């Protein structure tokens, strides 16, 4: 068993950026076709209860999506402290003509005076996914986006997620800041660092930095569909570790954006599995992530206030992939995902402890298991300190995962997902995470 721990304590970082700090979640409007206004209200209530201040509404070109945006804003009126802003998905929305610029501006203009519209530094917040090649009929990307901004009837705080070299940010004075979409995952087989964030901060040269926080990444589409089939390393309690990185560097960050609330196709959702999946059921159904949403409240408060909150309940969080990384799926025409080797065959545990204790990790046989290939392994134990503690243990093919928190001879929590086992012979590839939790 490998262990690490951090204790809950006040941080000494200053606010740094002007104004309030926010935690928002990226919400895929494209997955909300069946939503009613009440569904938006349910999402907002659930997000608010877990420390999230707003949604970045990622919308595309479908003709039904503007109505869902209107429903989202209408639902938000009953949540006066919840904020919304548009994130135009420029991999879908057209950005080639002056008419496209007008259409985008008109969409923003529908909500500029809405009480739940997020404003920052005196401007309505507008973001994107991509858009670094959108000229809108102008001579450059910068002038094209400036033409959009000019048609919005108020000041705009423009914070796109463009996939460009951050050292070139000076070529885009239209930007008020930037969102570093790919900074939330390690791009190789090493754990996450702050290096990508620092590159963006250097390139922004004092402009607003919106930082990504994300728990997971796996997408599995064939060339005949979306042609996306790869993983990013999501090991070693990525979500918590990334949050702690944001908190330690909060003086340089005005907003964290969680990737995502409901992007099932890329397996980094923290909200409930609902709405309309983008043909991702094969790797999403049966893989809940709501435990990560519960974890969010603790870290979001620390990011916004600069102090970790006190831990009033003991909690255990656990997650793992469903099969060995090198397993060969018998019946999967899409094939093994790229980067499959950039992960480890472990399960990961985070303990929020009200006081010291002992954690016992094991790989027991579960009712879902196939015939075991070896006797049950001896469990491993480690000390738990008051605060946040992280652990990992190697998984064993055909066995499950279990974490038990003890104080003396008293069992405080026993988290043993009975419907999980590490399947050595999967029929399809699935590098999504099974996530669970227990709480006193």
From TrEMBL:
GO terms for molecular function: glucan endo-1,3-alpha-glucosidase activity. Residues 363-381 have a biased composition (Low complexity). Residues 362-381 are annotated as: Disordered. The keyword Heme does not apply. CDD domains: GH71. It comes from the Eukaryota. Pfam families: Glyco_hydro_71. The keyword Hydrolase applies. Keywords: Hydrolase. This is Glycoside hydrolase. It comes from Dacryopinax primogenitus (strain DJM 731) (Brown rot fungus).
């Amino acid at each position: 068993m490998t262990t690490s721990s951090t204790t809950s304590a006040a941080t000494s970082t200053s606010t740094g950026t002007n104004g309030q700090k926010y935690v928002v979640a990226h919400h895929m409007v494209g997955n909300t076709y069946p939503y009613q206004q009440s569904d938006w209200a349910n999402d907002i209530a659930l997000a608010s209860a877990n420390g999230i201040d707003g949604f970045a509404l990622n919308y595309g070109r479908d003709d039904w999506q503007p109505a869902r945006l209107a429903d989202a804003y209408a639902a938000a009126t009953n949540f006066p402290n919840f904020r919304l802003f548009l994130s135009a998905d420029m991999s879908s929305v057209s950005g080639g003509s002056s008419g496209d610029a007008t259409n985008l501006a008109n969409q923003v203009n529908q909500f500029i005076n809405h009480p739940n519209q997020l404003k920052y530094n005196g401007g309505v917040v507008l973001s994107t996914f991509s858009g670094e090649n959108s000229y809108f009929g102008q001579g450059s990307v910068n002038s094209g986006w400036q033409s959009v901004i000019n048609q919005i009837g108020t000041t705009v705080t423009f914070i796109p997620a463009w996939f460009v070299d951050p050292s070139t940010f000076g070529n885009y004075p239209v930007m008020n800041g930037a969102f570093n979409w790919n900074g939330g995952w390690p791009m190789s087989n090493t754990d996450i660092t702050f290096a990508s964030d620092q590159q963006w901060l250097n390139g922004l040269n004092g402009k607003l930095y919106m930082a990504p926080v994300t728990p997971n990444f796996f997408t599995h589409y064939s060339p005949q569909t979306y042609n996306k089939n790869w993983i990013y390393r999501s090991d070693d309690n990525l979500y918590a570790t990334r949050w702690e990185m944001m908190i330690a560097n909060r003086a340089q960050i005005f907003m964290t954006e969680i990737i995502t609330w409901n992007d099932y196709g890329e397996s980094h959702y923290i909200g409930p599995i609902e709405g309309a999946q983008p043909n991702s059921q094969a790797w999403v159904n049966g893989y809940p992530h709501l435990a990560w949403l519960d974890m969010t409240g603790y870290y979001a408060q620390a990011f916004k206030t600069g102090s970790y909150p006190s831990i009033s309940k003991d909690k255990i969080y656990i997650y793992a992939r469903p099969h060995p990384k090198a397993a060969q799926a018998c019946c999967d025409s899409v094939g093994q995902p790229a980067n499959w080797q950039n992960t480890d065959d472990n399960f990961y545990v985070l303990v929020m402890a009200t006081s010291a204790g002992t954690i016992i990790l094991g790989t027991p046989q579960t009712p879902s298991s196939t015939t075991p290939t070896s006797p049950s392994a001896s469990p491993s134990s480690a000390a738990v300190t008051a605060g946040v503690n992280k652990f990992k243990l190697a998984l064993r093919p055909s066995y499950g995962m279990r974490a038990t928190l003890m104080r003396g001879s008293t069992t405080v929590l026993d988290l043993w997902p009975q419907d999980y086992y590490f399947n050595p012979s999967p029929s399809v590839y699935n590098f999504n995470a099974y996530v669970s939790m227990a709480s006193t």
